[in-house]
Structures are given as C-alpha cells and as structure tokens.
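quick one before i forget lol
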Amino acid sequence: MARKPGKMGKLGKLKLAASVAAGASAIASAATLAATRRKQRRAREEGKHVPAGPYEAVIKRPLGAAMAAGSLVVLSPLLAATALVVRVKLGSPVIFAQQRPGKEGKVFKLYKFRTMTDERDPETGELLPDEVRLTPLGQKLRAYSLDELPELVNILKGDMALIGPRPLLVQYLPLYSEEQAHRHDVRPGLTGLAQISGRNALQWEEKFRCDVEYVRNCTLVMDAKIFMTTFRVIVLRQGIHSETSATMEAFEGTQEQLPPPPDEFLGNKTQAPDEPMPGSDDPAPEHDPATTQSSSTPNDECPLTADPHTTPANLDSLVAGGNCSRDESEIGEHGDEAA
C-alpha cells in the first residue's frame, strides 16, 4: 500500500531529529566559543588571569553549580545527621563561618561544620592549640571531610568551585610571593590538586606549587582526575594532619627559592604565566619582605596523591539564630585552610 502523502516514516523522523540535534550542537558550540573569546579578551584588557579555553571560561562554573545543587539534595540526610551530632556533642554554633579570600583576593564567608571548641588560655585569653581544641568528633569529621560539606553552599553562591586551590586565611594574603599569589587567579575549590597530592602532609610551598600548577593548566580532564582521586584519598584517610600538628601549621611566608617542576602529573609543559593578579580589594597589612616573603619560581614537582564540606535555605537562619559562628577568631582552625 502506498504511503499517504504528508506523513513521515520512522526513518525520516530520526533523520530530522538528528539534523535538529546537530544544528543545536553547532549553535551551542559557536556560542560557547564566542563567549570564551569575549572573556579572554576582557581578561587581557583588565590584566587578569586569562581562561585557558571554553571549559574554564564558560562550562566550569555552571557545571559545578549544578553538581553542588544535586549533591545538596542527595546528601541532605547526611548533612542533617551531621548537624544534629555536632549540635549534641559540641553545642552551638553548629556551623563555623569565617572570612576567607577567594578569586582575586575578594573576601567571602566560608561555611563548615564546627570541629573545635573555643577554649582559651585563662591567663592570656588566647585560643589554645589546635590539638587541644580539636574534639574526637571533629577528628572523625575531618578524617572523612564531612566538615567541608556546607561549602557546597559556597559553590552555589559563586564564592567557590568544586575544584581549585583551597581557600586559606585572610592574613596570609600579604605573605605570598608574587608567584604564589596566582593561586587567587581562580575561584577556590572544595578539593584541588594539592589535596590529592598529599593534603596536610605537604609543606606550604609544595601546596602552593600545586595550586599555581592547577591555575595554569585547568582543563576538564584535570578536574575529572582530581574529582575521582579525591574519593580515594578520603577513603584512605591520607594526609589528614602534618607531621608536627594535629591540623596544619600556620603559614609564615616562603623562606627559600625553589626549583621549577618537571610536570609529571599533566604530561605536558606548564603554560607561561598570565598577567600578575591584581591585589585584593582590601589593602594588605605591612610586613617585612625579608622575613615573610621571597621570590619563588613556579614550582617544584607536585607530589601526586583529597579532601573535599544545612542546606542553603537554612544557613542564613542558622547564622541569624546563633547556630553559626560569625567571629573569625572564635575558632582559629589552622587545619581548616588546608583540609
């Protein structure tokens, strides 16, 4: 029987669908490339870090936000259970909030589950050492990086990314060498190259070499490697603390010049540095460059080996209701910056 005119067979429909999909893909690719070029051009004009390609310029941010939103939904029972345990064992506040420098040194409020007490020396009023204030519950939360889960909210807000250099303390900003300061060319991350390369077992200079190496070689492949390796490092509980501290010693500035790295992790040459990062919006405090800072070459080999942290709707209410610490000095968790 002859086919009725005007009706399309299954093969024709498939061809049409394929053509539409191909056209949409071509349009999306062209739009992504155009957006990438615009961002690269603007970054060069402003003297800022230039995104390496479409992934870093256009795809990474929405992809990370979508993954953070999905993770908050999937992990909501774990978030609620952890918050309840912290409330029962440590009391209020449940959430530790602290000012941390992000992209281009702009300060934002970072959220974590509380892991330490705020015990102070009765004579001096200063906080006791980390090993004294870190509770058994806090040790377990840090061991499996559960304290970091609230940072998924920071990712949704745009303060952080899933992958990137860890956000450290504001007082470290004036201590970085010019090379180390490039770690602030991108958004800080929940986990990063330094976290899968040794975590708190690394010296500060080694961490910063990994951070700068990541900034200059940010690709989808690298982010995928870091993301997958993070789970292995968490399960194996690697690099939870340094050799001499329950968390991580405070950074006091780079003391010596280090040789450039052979780029074994990436399998290619490190890209040339971009324009120097503009300084933080806030003026950096004065310091003695002879004792706190020296020029450092890009990086030694980054050792290869994670560390990723109730819900967005409730965080602000927790802050307002006294369940979230607003005082930067209330819990001076040195290990938090590197965890």
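fyi Residues 264-300, 303-313, 315-322, 326-339 have pLDDT under 50 and may be disordered.
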